[in-house]
Amino acid sequence: MVSWADSCSMTGDRMNAFILVIPAVLIRYGLMGFLSKEALERAKFFPPVEGIEKFGYYVYWASMVGLLVYLLFLNIKLGSFFSYVGLAIYLLGTLLYGKSVVDFSRISEDGVARSGLYAFSRNPMYVGFFIYFLGCSILIGSWIYFLILLVSQLSVHLLILAEERWCKKQFGKEYRRYMEEVRRYI
Q1: Phi and psi at residue 108, in whole multiples of 5°?
Q2: For the chain, which has fewer Cβ within 10 Å, the N-terminal or C-terminal residue?
Q3: Are 140 and 71 in contact (CB under 8 A)?
Q4: Of 183, 178, 180, 170, nearest to 47 (Cα)?
Q5: pLDDT at 6 over 60
């Protein structure tokens, strides 16, 4: 009898790496949509970008496509020490991303998410997502994938700067106080 893992590849000891994307999709669209349709709408919003942020916006989308499509052509092969380290990092990123989505779905009355992981990081969803894809990179053992991830993270930083500028305008002193109390990342 052929197992599910065997059906994922010709050799039976490898699984297509695209399967790693499934939890992120389920968390982002399934869990967030279940918890709050309004949060799902907020998560789709990109603030206006200026200057180099525009470049960052396009690089972000290109790198995200690269991160997802590249997985279609690679396999996961468990068994080495590094593959289990990658799996642990991937699972940690999945948990952090899931928890940040739950917290993002529960905003305060003034519209700023401050509870849960947002009490420690202004951008836990991005942090969780980075850890998630870092785990993917280690699981597939690809330096090219890791470089795409680094480019993605640099572009994400530019988008975060645009978000912060927008939030300062939108939420005023409440957001400025939040910025003083909570770090941008970790």
Answers
A1: -75, 175
A2: N
A3: yes
A4: 170
A5: no
Residue 138 token pair = 């280690």
Please compute the mean of the pLDDT values over residues 152-177 and round it to a whole number.
95
Name every residue whose Cβ is closer than 8 Å to that of residue 32 and which is 6 or more positions away in sequence: 39, 40, 43, 101, 104, 105
Residues 36-54 have pLDDT tens digits of: 999 999 899 999 999 999 9
Q: How far is it, in rounded angstroms, from Cα 12 to Cα 1?
A: 12
- Decide if 178 contacts 122 (C-beta within 8 A): yes
Half-sphere exposure of 143 (CA within 13 A, CB side): 0
> In angstroms, rounded to a whole number, what is the distance separating the alpha carbons of residues 174 and 112?
8
Please, which residues bridge with residue 183 across strands? 121
Per-residue pLDDT of 64-109, as tens digits, reads 999 999 999 999 988 899 999 999 999 999 999 999 999 999 887 8
CB 128 within 8 A of CB 100: yes
The predicted pLDDT at position 139 comes to 94
The residue behind tokens 């597939």 is 140
Examine the pLDDT at 55 and tell me if it is beyond 50.
yes
Spatial CB neighbours of 56, under 8 Å, sequence gap ≥ 6: 49, 154, 155, 156, 157, 158, 159, 162
